[in-house]
Amino acid sequence: MQAASDSGCSSTASASLAPHGSIIAALVTGERGLTVGEIPEPGKPAPDEVQVRIRAVALNHIDVWGWRGMAFAKRNLPLVAGAEAAGEIVALGEAVTDRSPGDIVSLYGAKTCGTCPACLDGRDNFCETMDSIYGFHIDGFLRTAMNIPARLTVKAPDGLDAISAALAPITFGTVEHMFFDNAKLKSGETVLVHAGGSGIGTAAIQLAKAAGATVITTVGSDEKAARAAELGADHVINYNEERFEGRVRKLTGRKGVDVVFEHVGPSTWGGSLLSLKRGGRLVTCGSTTGITAETNLNLLFQQQLQLIGSFGCTLANIRGALEKLGQGSVRPVIDSVIGIDELEAGLNRLEQRQVFGKIVVTL
């Protein structure tokens, strides 16, 4: 852990108040404990590092979990929050030759080793040190500046702003990995995207449509249904008004969908399996409603279903996401842009699903 200062923390501090020798950071201090305070400035970057002025941090459920605490997480508190971000390079380590001051870069969300077989093979999210997730296990990105290995930064296309680039590492990168590396989604297929109003759901709708798929999505209100349709969803189901699996079967002529995009967990798991066609693929990257779900094994083997777990993404996925964002084939869906002093309110809204798209903290 890059230790935060144990003194001088203030819940009302702001970047403009930081004295020489310190920067401002959002610190998780305990179960639902959060403060904004001062930590030491990063100093000169190591030879293989760059120093980044953090511009935007996108909030995710991993930030909620880190804030409210999880029993299995091995970490030391206080801990700088923030797992998905982008910023501007302001200084280079002496060995860094492929980055320049002024570059807008997306930051990879885990401090991978760069030397294990998985890293060398481009499978960064299979690194042997994947217990080093920024903002969850180790100090994260919600601070005004930091040093980070240059290899964990991905340059944004010219003209792409930092808020858009901040959504590439988790929001769009995770979906790239789920759909194209794991589920092998193809043009002409039909996909069910759960929670189409969530940050990752809005990305999934757009990436699936851009790939030529028919998209069915679920949302929790008529207002979200209208906005999901504007994003390109072909069919939108309000799960508070009808059982989504029944509607999916009707929409597909009782055949089911080719791919289910899961990240909700127990509350949707059974219906998701029933929504798949024979030989269909379910890919999941999360479980926001719990960690234990029942699986109908008869359905699993009789229908020859494929269940695929997917965690994070690779650096190549981030590059792919940035390219599509730069081209305009997909766009960031921003619920709100807030300041660092509004972080706790933002986490509460995310936890209660009172969002459509992403909450972004600007620094």
Question: Would you spell out the secondary-structure blueprint of this structure?
Answer:
Layout (H helix, E strand, L loop, with lengths): L21 E9 L2 E8 L8 E10 L2 H8 L10 E2 L4 E8 L11 E4 L9 H4 L24 E5 L3 E3 L6 H5 L1 H15 L7 E4 L5 H12 L3 E6 L2 H10 L3 E4 L5 H8 L5 E6 L3 H9 L1 E9 L12 H6 L3 E4 L5 H13 L6 E5 L4 H9 L6 E5 L1
Parallel strand pairs: 9-10, 9-12, 10-11, 12-13, 13-14, 15-16
Antiparallel strand pairs: 1-2, 1-4, 3-5, 3-7, 3-16, 5-6, 6-8
Helix pairs in contact: 1-11, 4-5, 4-10
Shape: globular
Low-pLDDT ranges: 1-19
The CATH topology label of the largest domain is Quinone Oxidoreductase, Chain A, domain 1
* C-alpha Rg (nearest Å): 20 Å
Percent helix: 25-40%
Strand content: 25-35%
Helix and strand pattern: EEEHEEEHEEHHEHEHEHEHEHEHEHE
Q: Give the beta-strand count.
A: 16
| CATH-defined architecture of the largest domain | Alpha-Beta Complex
Specify the CATH homologous superfamily of the largest domain: Medium-chain alcohol dehydrogenases, catalytic domain
Structural description of this entry:
The protein is α/β, with parallel strands linked by helices and 363 residues long. Helix content is 27%, strand content 25%. Strands 3, 5, 6, 7, 8, 15 and 16 form a seven-stranded mixed sheet that branches. 48% of the residues are buried. Residues 1-19 have low confidence and may be disordered.
Essential attributes:
2 domains, Quinone Oxidoreductase, Chain A, domain 1, globular, alpha/beta
In brief, what are we looking at here?
Helix content is 27%, strand content 25%. It has helices spanning 61-68, 117-120, 162-166, 168-182, 199-210, 222-231, 244-251, 266-274, 297-302, 315-327, 343-351, and strands at residues 22-30, 33-40, 49-58, 79-80, 85-92, 104-107, 145-149, 153-155, 190-193, 214-219, 235-238, 257-262, 276-284, 306-309, 334-338, 358-362.
